[in-house]
Amino acid sequence: MKKTNNKGFSLVELIIVIAIMAILVGVLAPQYLKYVEKSRVSADKDQLDSFYTACTTAAADPDLTGVPNYNTSKTTFNPSGAAAGSWSKEVEDTMGNVAPKWKSKASGSAGATKWPDYQTDASGNFTVYIGTSLSISGH
User: Fold this and answer.
1) What is the tally of structural domains in the chain?
2) What order do you get walking across the sheet with 126-130 strand by strand?
3) Structural domain of residue 64, as residue ranges?
């Protein structure tokens, strides 16, 4: 009997392993992509919630000036050059000056890096928006 010194895998064994890995990637990739998109939307909602809280907290302070009145259209929050003691400066300070300036992570809300939009109703309740698909409003 001849003694062979086989070290390693045969070509068939390697092809089978590669085929199994391809099947696993094909099954798991869509689930992973859904998970990533869900986490992006969740991150946007968390940022919107923080911005909403900052808006309502600043609006409740009677000493601040420039609190938004009822408006029927969205307004982009822009605190540049806001004076101390104004509503927009207070919101900016509460958010850490640059925290709410973001580019949406959700694919349906893609756009340039900017402050979120806000709108107020006749009762003074805020609705804050990022892009067109995400919003948070008061109760």
Assistant:
1) 1
2) 75-76, 117-120, 126-130, 134-137
3) 11-137
Is residue 91 helix, strand or coil? helix
Give the C-alpha separation, 91 to 79, whole Å.
Answer: 8
Note the pLDDT tens digit of each residue in 99-129.
555 655 655 555 556 778 888 888 888 888 8
Residue 6 lies in a domain: no
Measured at the CA of 105, the angle between CA 114 and CA 48, to 5 degrees, comes to: 65
Q: What are 139's two structure tokens?
A: 């109760």
In a domain, 22, yes or no: yes
How far does CA 82 lie from the centroid of its chain?
25
pTM of the shown model? 0.69
Q: Hey, is 43 helix, strand or coil? A: helix
User: Which DSSP helix (H) or strand (E) runs through 30?
Assistant: helix 11-59
Q: Does residue 136 contact residue 45 with C-beta atoms inside 8 Å?
A: yes
- Do the domain assignments include residue 2? no
Let me know if residue 3 belongs to a domain.
Answer: no
